[in-house]
Amino acid sequence: MQHELSRRSFLRGSAASAAGAGVIGAGSAFVGPASAAQTDGPPVVGPVAALLTLRVNGVTRTLQIEPRTTLAEALRGPLGLTGTKIACDRGACSACTVWLDGVTVCACMMLAVEVGARSVTTIEGLAKGEHLHPVQAAFIEHDALQCGFCTPGMVMSCAALLEHTPNPSVDEVNAAISGHLCRCGTYPHVVAATLAAAKARKA
Is 159 helix (H, G, I), strand (E, B) or coil? Predict the structure, then answer.
């Protein structure tokens, strides 16, 4: 004979099962921290501010920041390198693009404490004193900027492209800036400037 399960019986059974699981969970939680303490792991940093050393534009800089600070915030704040822009803060617009050991990254999507010994290059590090980088000079010559907010990130990506591809095609330039959002719509000028900078570098 089959017995029907009432709603009240079901709820009572569920409560008992949850209570049992809670007892087991409490026991395992007690063991967890003790076993974790016995294993060697990376040092815990935070939540208070800590000293951090970064190599930025060829110079070693020491700053005191909270571990939650992004690389973009560290560059713009304590280091005063405001050329790196923060726009979307989501890695969607690429305005905050910098180089990390020569590779382009969105600085808003990386914590400063994650950089480690890698070298950071910002838009301020491209020029050599008063002598502009060929991409910077070409952007001015070809009017590849309007409001200028996306320009530093664009320049960093285009300059990185020329480091690896000295004679890029139009498609390769378009691919290099495909992650950049320019509300002013200067993309054709950016492509022309990058191609001109490639020719200037060869000359």
Answer: helix
